Structures are given as structure tokens and as C-alpha cells.
Protein: Site-specific integrase
Amino acid sequence: MAKRFFHHFCPSDIQSKYSLIVFDDNKAPFIPLTEYYHWQIGRVSDSTALSYLNALEVFFYWLKHKSLHLGERITWDKETYLIKTAIKQYLQKEFQCKVRDQEKYERVYLTNKSNKTVNHFLAAIKGFYKCMISLKLYHHKNPLVSLEVEQDIREDLGIRKNKPRMPQIAGTEEPKSFRKQTESYFKIVNHEWVPEIIGDLDLPYIIYNAGEKMKWSLRDEVIIRFMFETGARISEILGLTIGDYRNRTDKHELSAFNKGSYKRRSKFLKISPDTLKLLIRYINVERNQYTNNPNNFKNLENNEQIFISQRGTVYSYNSFYNNWTKITKSVDIKLNPHKARHWFVTSMLRGIYEMSNSSAEIEERKKQLIEYMKWRDADTINVYEHYYDEDRYRDLHDKLIQNYLHREKEYLKSKTKNQINQKSTDEFITKQNNNFDDEWLNEFYEGMEDE
Structure:
């Protein structure tokens, strides 16, 4: 019997209105989470919908077996105040957060023991109850929304008596604080997003080697090499078309859409010659086995998807993620595909510092990296910069320690040599004084001690 909530994707040979079904720890279908997942599709990306589902599966198992109010378990469909109580318990006990009541909402303080995914969980559970209310499966107010704050937002008046606020562009009123206006009942008050830094230079090769041992498909090999070589999001890679390759004049580049560009090709990806060879081989050989329109690369239409499933349809994130998980688990690594993007930036920044001859050259190459990544906020690179400040200090410290050890060895050698020379001198002096009666000298020292 499974000791958790879990999900399975619908097999390709079975007809069902659900592409995925969630099961509880008794292996019974759990419809609320199943409906929630499908409700999210189209509203958020497939990867986000799946990550929200993973977070809620853990919570619902906890809710069923560990939540407690007046000696009873709390079910997901209970009144609003009971769900709030359960979520507060969960944040405190499972995420190690401190939660403080602020009359109209709860302040959530992250501690050094808090899980990094607190905000992710709160977004997932808020969306869940929004979905349940929309589908008329939950008959109370959304427990993740502060009704009082929501009412305050609606009734917020401007400085003119009994008049609504003027638009911010008018410049006649103080801008509203986002934190004061958010409707969320649980507010994280000391949270700052920090991208994860992955500095293991050998990470791609560990994954490549694991994939080969798992007999990965050529399609997955090409995709994973794209991930580490380009720093692109997995959704951007899976969305590539034949035309995206033909649009670029450089034979090692492809056009790609960016997050928030609404499929408009606003960036490019650059791959290695070896990966290009694998890509062409995949298109001309493996891909043709699963398409109704087998053609070599030169004869395919521009709008043809590059990566397809074994059914000839678009290769989805969920299908790729299943294969990716099998590969990473085989080498006992827990790694989200998005971490390859962080690895790419980390490696590129390392290369910038190693290849540049001046601070001006470093700054210019950093600007090029920012432009390539198409970051909305150029300051994102500062987090990686901080990592390299620490990394360069480690190198400096290591060299300093090496110098210490070297000087210590030299000192010990020198000291040993001096001891040998001193020993020879002492022996000489002793031999020279053997003919003298030194009793008077002892008496002299004894006399000094008495004074």
C-alpha cells in the first residue's frame, strides 16, 4: 500500500477525459486533485501545473493523517477557518515557519530551517481552492484569501473625501504598497527569491553517462544536451520547430521564444557542432519512425515540431519529465530540469572571469550573457556574482593555505638544519670545557637565585 498520494498519466491506449489521475494512499482515485490538475492546464505551464500537484499531494497526505483540531482530522472540504488552521499547522510543523496572527491575515516568517518552497505551496493551495469553488466542489470562501483585506482594497478611497483614488499616473496620491494590498491570507514577509547555484562542472557528463546506461532515446539525448549547452527553459526547447533552425544564418543556432513572449521568437539558442549532428540524425532517422509525414530535414515544413512523441504528437513536458526522472534517479540525483539552466549560467559566468583580461571586458561579456538569457531584470546576475565573489575567495584562501603549508615545510627544514648545527656547536663547546672545574659557576647561579 502506498504511503502517500501519487499520480499516474493515462496510458496511450486508453481513452479517458483525464490525461492524469491522482490516487490517495489507499490507491483510490482522488478526484479533487485530479480536477485541479486539469483545471490548471492552459492557465499555467505544464511544468508548473505538475509541480503544484506534487506539492499538494504531500499536503493532502499530511492533512489526512496528521492535521488535528479538537482531536479530529481536518478534511479538505471543511469550513474556511478549519482549513486555515490546518495550513497554519502545516507551515509550522512541516516547513518550520513561524506564523504570527495580524488580525486580518497571518504573517509567515521563514527560518533557517524553512523549506524553500513555502511560497510555491501557498500558490498551489490557493489555486486549488479557487478551482474547487469554480467547479462548485467547495462550498465556503477561499481560505487563502483574506476577505477583510479584499474588502479594504475595493473600498480604498483617495485623498479627496468620498472619492475614489486617482490613477497612479496622475501623481496626486501616494502609490499603494503591494504588500498592504495583496489579498493573500498567509503573507511571507521575509522571503527573497534566489536562484540556485550549481557549480559542479561534471554535472552534464554525469547525466549523459546515466542516459547512455539507461539506453535513452536519441530525442532525449538531444534535448538534454540542448538544456546544458543553451541554458534554455525546457518549454522553449520542446517548442522548437524546423523553421526555428532555418531562421538563423549561423548553422549552430536556432530561434526560440522566451518566457512571456507569447511564442514570438525573441531569442536564439546556440549549440555545439556535435549536438547539431545528433539533432540532424534524430530528425532524419528516429523521428521518422513516429510521424505520418516521414521526411529528411531538408524537406520538412517550417512549422513541423522538431521533437515529437512516439504517437507523432508534440512531445510534452510531462512525458519528458518522466524520462528525465528515470535517468537522474539511476545515479541517485534529485534534479529538476530547470537546474540545468542555473548550471549553464554558473558555468558561463565562471568562463567570463577565466577568459577576460580586464574588468571592462568582464562587464561587457556579462552584458552579452544578460542579453542572451533575456532576463527581464538584469540584476538577476548579481546573485550569481555573489556566488563568484565567494568562489574567488575560496580560490584565494586555498592558495593562501598552500603557501602556508609550503612555508611551514621550509621553516621546519630550516629549523631542523639549525638544530643540527647547534648540536655540533654544543658538542664542541662541551669538549672545550671538559678541562675546567665549573663548580664555582654553579655556586654563582645558586647565589643569584637567593637574591
Summary: The chain has two domains: 6-157+177-188, 203-355. The first helix runs from residue 31 to 40. DSSP finds 16 helices and seven strands in the chain. The longest strand covers residues 265-270.
